[in-house]
Amino acid sequence: MTDRSRLLRGGARAVTGLLVTAAAVGGVVLMGNVPLPSVVHEPLALTVDTTQDTARTLACAGSFSELGADPARPGVAIPVGEATTAVSGEASGTATLARGEGTGLPSVVFAPMSQPLAAAQFQAIDTENLRGAAASSCAEPSNEQWIMGGASSLGFSTTLSLGNPGTVPATVSIAVYDENGAVDSVQTAGVIVAPGTQQTVSLNGYAPDRERLAVRVVSTGAPVTAHVGVAQSSGITPFGVSGATPQVEPSTSLVIPAIENADGDDRGPNDSGEGDAFPFIVRALAPGELAGTASVRVLDKNGKSTEVGEIELAPNAVGELRVGTLPDGANALVIDADVPIIAGAAGSADDADTREHDFEWFAPAPVIAADAEVAAPVVAGGRLVVVNPADTEAEITIARADGKGKDTTETVRPGAAVVLDAPANAILTSSAPVHAGVRYVSDSAIAGYPILAPDPRDGTLTVYPR
């Protein structure tokens, strides 16, 4: 092959290579600018009912515990008598919690999460050292909760009962707050509560000589239930007892239903010459570093709202408002604050003829979601109070958990708190969010508790399978 032939063949190959390269580049550019068909698959989402095959557990406090019943062990709380329990809904199982001594063991009830279930306990007490009535809601175990009420000053004894219905031990940290702030000596106080047992401790021993008490309970290992029992004496004469139900978390708006201060209108004014002899008491605590102000108003059955005062709150200190005369017909208390708070309110009952007295610490009630069926147990002699704090009407339906009898309906005005007839095993449904509680009042005894609706955030979970 001549040199000329080789040159022509090499040139042809070069030209061909350039053409192929140019075509490839052009194809790439064309593919980058021309839309091509694509296939899109939406992620598969499955909604799972988290209440299926799960159980709800409620634990009651059991019989009231008395400090000093045994002179040889003045710091030991000894249970006295027995409490009665009202249950609304069908329990799938029951149990009791063991404790060191005493009768009236704390009861535990179980039911599937999807079914309405609630329980409450009531105890009338009349011994040499204690007299009055105490009531509280049976609550679900929790890893954190707050309780307002009680004192450890002269004449007062306050106990904290911790129940562990679970299967593993619980390590419980107790923090106590008084009128001056956090009580430093108990910030790291710990109590071990074995599975299936209840432990009762004396808050007088943790924080003696305090005029106002609030407690934070935090548990690890297993969630627990917490209840406070308060007893007061005047000299050697019993002056009253109370049980207090816990609040799950601080909030800027709280509703305390079923309040009362039937402290004897015939007795005359207090020492200052004005108001009731035993004023209605409201206490609040702002946990954390911020101070705040809480405004307090009461609601009646007609929707009338009456401002009764304000509480100035220092950080971590229990503030107090004394209402000299509770307005007639007041059935509920609303507390609005500019910082998250916990709160409680105490009312009295007093019989001028027998000179017998009693008091009760009323606790906030969580909201009952619209159209939710919520069990509302009513102890013997108790009355159901429903509170509608909104600006629209709420239609209330009350049925029996066993399905017997006819349902009843009642319309609750905006901003009203009404007393409704209800059976012991009531199921309450409302067309709008409401709060509810139960109160018991006689001539010389008073007690009450909130209706604890299940957390509305529970129920469903969205799962995206791979």
TrEMBL record:
<keyword id="KW-0472">Membrane</keyword>
<keyword id="KW-1133">Transmembrane helix</keyword>
<dbReference type="InterPro" id="IPR043777">
    <property type="entry name" value="DUF5719"/>
</dbReference>
<feature type="transmembrane region" description="Helical">
    <location>
        <begin position="12"/>
        <end position="32"/>
    </location>
</feature>
<keyword id="KW-0812">Transmembrane</keyword>
<dbReference type="Pfam" id="PF18986">
    <property type="entry name" value="DUF5719"/>
</dbReference>
<protein>
    <recommendedName>
        <fullName>Large extracellular alpha-helical protein</fullName>
    </recommendedName>
</protein>
